[in-house]
Amino acid sequence: MAKPHKHTLSVNGTKQVVFVDDDTEPLLYVLRNQLGLKGPKFGCGVAQCGCCTVLIDGVITRSCVTKMSALADGAEITTLDGLGSAEQPHPLQQAFIEEQAGQCAYCSNAMIMGALGFLEGRANAGNRAVPSEDEIKQFLSGQSTTPPFVYLCRCGSHPRIVRAIQHAAQGMVH
Amino acid sequence: MARTMSRRQFVSRAGTLAVAFSFAPALTRGFPVEVKAAGRPADMAIDSWLVIGPDNSVTIYSGKVDLGTGVQTALTQIVAEELYLTIDQISFVQGDTSQTSGDRGYTAGSQTIQTEGPTLRIAAATAFQALLGLASQQLGVPVEKLTAQNGQIAITNNPDSACTYGKLIGHQQIQLSSDPNVAVKDPAAHTVVGQSLPRVDLPDKFMAKFPFMQDLTIHGMLHGRVVRPTGRNATFVSLDDSALSAIPGFVQVVQQGNFVGVVATDEWAAIQAAKALMVNWQQGAPLIAEADLPQTLRDPANIYQTAAAEIAAGNVDDALSGASTTLEAEYFTPFQMHASIGPSCGLADVRHKPDPITGIQATVWSGTQGVYPLQGAIAELLGIPTAAVRVIYVEAAGCYGHNGADDAAADAALLSQAVGKPVRVQWMRQDEHGWEPLGPPMAHTLRGGLDSHSRVVAWDHTVWTPSHSGRPSGDQGNLLAGQAIGALPPALGSQARTGGRNQPVNYGFANKQQIEYSVANYAMAAGATTSPLIYSYLRTSSLRSLGGFSNSFANESFMDELAIKADIDPFVFRMSYLSDARALAVMQAMADQAGLSGSKPPAQSGMLSGRGISYLQYENNLAYVAAAAEVQVNPTTGAVQVTRVVVAHDCGQIINPDGLMHQIEGNIIQGVSRTLKEQVTFDEHGVTSVLWAPNTFFPGTPHYSILNFTEVPTVEVVLIDQPTLDPLGAGEPTIEAVPAAIGNAIYNAAGIRLRTIPFTPDRVLAALANHTS
Q: Taking 80 as the threshold, does the pLDDT of residue B9 lie above it?
């Protein structure tokens, strides 16, 4: 029996049709288990750490609490998997490599996708200034956003992550 | 990279040169180089091989594993150096019980670089000397007239004579034993070691191409979830699974003793099934109340073992009674957790019978710290021979010690055995926060005495702690799933001084002693071989630096208290009891970088500012660490902001400066987090702090929070290189230096002495109220 709920999505620029039994299933599990993506990760299931971060129509989204039923038809989903490649890394990925901004790096999906949404969001709002270190820290601590999304790192790579985001911003906002 | 060839096939292939060696230090000695046509080298305990292939590639088969610290890159540099190769020519096959062998140990205790580095260097140098010998034969000149470069050996000044290693080996099949007396490269000639080469694993991680344990899938895999008991000592009564059949994809409920789990074809279905399964549990004996810590740790009724540290001197009691001033203080660190960002995950494929060719019946993938100890424990759990279990290490989120990785693997193994298909178990956040083996609480009493010249004449440190050692060790009783089906952990007292790391100090006091009381956290009837197992405290095991974090907190805080009592500057006070030149050098480097000779850091508006220092030598004979912390204390809210931490660090020869720097930065930041924020909360049934933060999904649930970005200090690290000495581990030493430096800085800022971790605003406000009243 076919799964009853059909969704048409655009994932990293490719049209995907997926079916789920339960329309309250979070997007995270569909991305990982049906579409085989490795970028978005499970971290807490309650939007507290950032591991599952994706962009939906450019908006930072915690996919672990985003029900499939909440997705608009044709929603454009961007994940870390679609960002860049070894040959052509995205400026954020390049900056993370240059700063060696990850230790276990399980959180790097959170940091890179959060930063992407942050920098693009600023640019779209007309703010083309390179963010200060404090602005980046406040963003990653959920102190300048609604909802107040927090990004957690346990290994202590924070200073390198902040530097990498700032360096990437220098190349992205101009 | 998938490798289908087994180790035995690989090392016995024609056209290869293989060097057998062992990471067990005692076993690397005494085996001369001997070239054999084939077969196993001299009778020795081999756990690893270095194999050079026809294409000059080097593969190292090792039972040890990388744990997300980048240490593999540093080990690769060591091999590349001795063999005149680049690091991309070297790869590791690690942590697979079918491809590596023999080693019974763990990747832990900050020891990878210091134990594996020199061993690998010798193995690589052994291979190189053999290649030189081959070149000498084939080119017809003595080895003194040969030069190596870029994986080729040539007659000096005759580049046309160059032969690749593969060409020198030809069709031979060469097997050697590592030669402990082999000539190694002069450190002055190093071109790879000592360089900040970028980590080999990071690009894939940033491109979402790196398969973490949590990302691993295999064909036909089902998803499992475990339904945890309502209490640490709760027992299974009954279950009602009537709601589960309505969940599409639900496969089966598995119940064995107190182990209850669900399996489904789909991950979300498994999560829903676990939620929908109604289980009746009977609550067991209550845990000792959190509010009664630390007093209950000191209760003689709870102590099962007393041990004294070997580093002791003189007669402390006599010296104390003769002292002109004495001081006594109590310190406490609560239960803390590893708190991995990625909850543990295990995958197991348990068949009904062994594979007729390989003999393997159960294959288990895990982010474990030790594939062999887990292999034995899983075999017991499943009731099959150890040789029928294959455990494959897959890197998971950083673990910082013994977290839930082994338990998740065991969960998957039990579920897979029950359903006869591969099962993946991804722990939920509440599993990790609620059930991972915790860093134990520690209570300390320090006593000290000063003579009439304000010199320390007596130092006495007593600690009370549950065990810091609960790793699988081949025993299913160490696994959560094992205990759930009735297995018992080892009898208390089978390990001595698990909490004693860095309890002794390296200061030259005439009279000093250290006593450790081991506190029971579980009990079973004498001689019992089956349940009931009754926990009185939460389950504990190894958390980064073990007892060192809390012992050094107590030591270095008390050192500050004595300095203040003696009215001597804390830096001058410490220096006057140190004589080791390397100790003095890290202290001076820290003082210079931190600007200790200058005035206090400026106070921000409405804040109290201060600076504190600490010093330790890891395990009393390894890496040297000196730290300075600067704080801003808000006297109205009690909030402490650590604004700057300076560390000077000497861990011998530096292999990869940037990698080392990153380790130290991580230690500092995790240390600040544990010092300011981290405390497991629990009630009579179990852990209650099962989230990262307050949350609308679970209203009222307590949380276990870690540092966020705005709370991270500026970190400055001074590395002292000792190129002619062996490298020492850097994975843990610095975290020990952090809490006392912060506590001492708070004293310097506000005149209050915090002796209980974490330094929460409530504790600061209470101490301030006490101070001013």
A: no
Residues in CB range of B76: below 8 A, 6 or more apart? B87, B90, B92, B200
Which of A22, A24, A44 is most worth mutating to test chain B (most B CB atoms within 10 A of its CB)?
A: A44
Confidence of residue B115 (pLDDT cuts 50, 70, 90): confident
Residue B69, in any domain of the structure: yes
Asked if the bond preceding B602 is cis, omega within 30° of 0, the reply is no
Q: Same domain, yes or no, for B671 and B649? A: yes
Does the distance separating the beta carbons of B429 and A25 come in below 8 Å?
no
Residues B393 and B506 occupy one common structural domain: no
For residues B351 and B414, membership in a common domain is answered with yes
Residues B159 and B234 in one domain: no
Least Cα distance to B669 among B618, B742, B612 occurs for B742
Are B343 and B331 contained in the same domain? no
Range with the poorest average pLDDT among A48-62, B13-27, B326-340? B13-27
Contact A106 B272 (CB under 8 A): no
What is the arithmetic mean of pLDDT over A76-83? 98
- Does B481 fall in a domain? no
Of residues A26, A109, A155, nearest to B208 (C-beta): A109
Which residue, B169, B184, B199, sits at the end of a domain?
Answer: B184
Helix, strand, or coil here: B50? strand
SS3 A74: coil
pLDDT above 60 for B36: no
- Closest partner residue to B668 (CB to CB) among A38, A83, A156 is A156
* B344-to-B412, B429, B471 alpha-carbon distances in Å: 11, 9, 15
Report the CATH number at residue B42.
Answer: 3.30.365.10
**Is the pLDDT reported for residue B93 higher than 70?**
yes
Q: By residue range, what is the domain housing residue B306?
A: 293-336+438-467+495-535
CA distance B297 to B288: 10
What is the count of structural domains for chain B? 4
Chain A residues within 8 A of B397 when measuring between CB atoms: 104, 106, 154
CB nearest A22 (choices: B268, B341, B712): B268
Q: Is residue B549 part of a domain?
A: no
Q: Which of B184, B204, B230 is the last residue of a domain?
A: B184
Q: Does the ipTM exceed 0.90?
A: yes
Work out the average pLDDT over B514-523. 94
Please answer whether residues B499 and B439 qualify as being in contact, where contact means their C-beta atoms are separated by less than 8 angstroms: no
Residues of A in contact with B202 (CB under 8 A): 96-97, 100, 102, 105
Residue in chain B closest to A44 (alpha carbons) equals: B429
Set of chain A residues whose Cβ sits within 8 Å of the Cβ of B666: 103, 155-157
* Residue B176 domain-assigned (yes or no): yes
| Measured distance CA(B216)–CA(A52) in Å, rounded | 16
Q: Assess whether B582 and B658 both reside in one domain.
A: yes
**pLDDT tens for each residue of B143-167:** 999 999 999 999 999 999 999 999 9
Chain A residue closest in CA terms to B433: A44
Q: What is the pLDDT of residue B65?
A: 64
Integer Cα distance of B354 and B361 in angstroms: 4
Q: Tell me: the pLDDT tens digits for B402-450? A: 999 999 999 999 999 999 999 999 999 999 999 999 999 999 999 999 9
Tell if the CB–CB gap between B342 and A21 is shorter than 8 Å.
no
Domains contained in chain A, CATH given:
5-82 (3.10.20.30), 91-172 (1.10.150.120)
* For range B650-679, the mean pLDDT: 97
Task: For tokens 């390049």, name the residue.
Answer: A94
Contacts of B181 (CB under 8 A, 6+ apart): none
In chain A, which residue's Cα lies nearest the Cα of B71? A103
Q: What digits encode the pLDDT tens for the residues B133-144?
A: 999 999 999 999
Q: Residue A48 is nearest to which of B212, B248, B695, comparing CB atoms?
A: B695
pTM of structure: 0.94
DSSP annotation of B684: S
Verify that B100 and B45 share a domain, yes or no.
Answer: yes
Are residues B370 and B332 both part of a single domain? no
Q: For residue A10, how many other CB atoms are within 10 A of its CB?
A: 14
Contact B429 A44 (CB under 8 A): yes
Chain A residues whose CB is inside 8 A of the B210 CB are 38, 105
